């Protein structure tokens, strides 16, 4: 917003963001919309001008504008979204946090124990697919009384992945995995709770059937204590329109 104010609009600019993320969560891509009005007689900015100008004023910040599109007045970055895709990065093979590659610090989660039963986690993820009351899988906040706990999970995949320069340290036996979730919208901390529950299944603390039971309980207090995944491994991957 500060970068946009440097474009000298005659009306203050307000950004409307598609998705909010917790402190410590990352975004590979996000979307926002705003209206910009120039002084009379000045031509409207084109897309390339906006990309260049905004990035010039953002050069000291860990954020970049990738694309700009002119949209209709009816468009809304949050409410027009068809779906949102999140990726959670897990690291297996670490018996101690000091074994996490330094370039992966705060960019993945290495659960205690080092090994996870991925087939069991995949079986458990199938219970999350479809439309359910996800009350057990949301943290409570000020919006809880006003938001329906019913959500539809369109995708819940667990696939092997790669780490930054990991081909140079294959001898260490570390494995990166990605959990991918897609839905039109998610509840507060829902993805981190789903990941934490699936990891508990992978550790043998829960069975796949326990995921179905947690859904049926419909009570956030029933979620296993201290099981929520940390924010560092979570990435907003994309917003689809």
Automatic annotation (TrEMBL):
Keywords: Isomerase, tRNA processing. Residues 124-241 form the Pseudouridine synthase I TruA alpha/beta domain. It comes from the Eukaryota. One of its GO terms (molecular function) is tRNA pseudouridine(38-40) synthase activity. Its EC number is 5.4.99.12. Substrate binds at residue 86. InterPro entries: PsdUridine_synth_cat_dom_sf, PsdUridine_synth_TruA, PsdUridine_synth_TruA_a/b_dom, PsdUridine_synth_TruA_C, TruA/RsuA/RluB/E/F_N. The active site is at residue 22. It catalyses: uridine(38/39/40) in tRNA = pseudouridine(38/39/40) in tRNA. GO terms for biological process: tRNA pseudouridine synthesis. PANTHER family: PSEUDOURIDYLATE SYNTHASE (PTHR11142), TRNA PSEUDOURIDINE SYNTHASE-LIKE 1 (PTHR11142:SF0). Belongs to the tRNA pseudouridine synthase TruA family. This is tRNA pseudouridine synthase. It comes from Nycticryphes semicollaris.
């Amino acid at each position: 917003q500060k970068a946009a104010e440097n474009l000298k609009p005659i009306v203050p600019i307000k950004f409307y963001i598609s998705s909010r993320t917790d402190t410590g969560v990352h975004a590979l891509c996000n979307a926002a919309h705003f209206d910009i009005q120039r002084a009379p007689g000045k031509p409207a900015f084109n897309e390339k001008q906006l990309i260049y100008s905004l990035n010039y004023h953002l050069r000291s910040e860990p954020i970049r504008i990738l694309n700009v599109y002119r949209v209709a007045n009816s468009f809304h970055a949050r409410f027009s979204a068809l779906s949102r895709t999140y990726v959670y990065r897990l690291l297996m093979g670490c018996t101690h946090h000091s074994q996490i590659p330094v370039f992966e610090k705060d960019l993945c989660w290495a659960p205690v124990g080092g090994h996870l039963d991925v087939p069991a986690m995949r079986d458990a993820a199938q219970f999350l697919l479809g439309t359910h009351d996800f009350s057990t899988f949301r943290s409570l906040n000020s919006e809880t009384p006003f938001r329906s706990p019913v959500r539809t999970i369109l995708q819940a995949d667990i696939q092997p992945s790669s780490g930054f320069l990991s081909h140079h340290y294959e001898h260490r036996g570390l494995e990166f995995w990605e959990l991918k979730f897609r839905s039109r919208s998610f509840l507060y901390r829902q993805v981190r709770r789903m990941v934490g529950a699936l990891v508990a299944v992978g550790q043998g603390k829960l069975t796949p059937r326990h995921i179905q039971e947690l859904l049926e309980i419909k009570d956030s207090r029933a979620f296993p204590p201290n099981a929520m995944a940390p924010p560092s491994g979570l990435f907003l991957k994309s917003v689809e329109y």
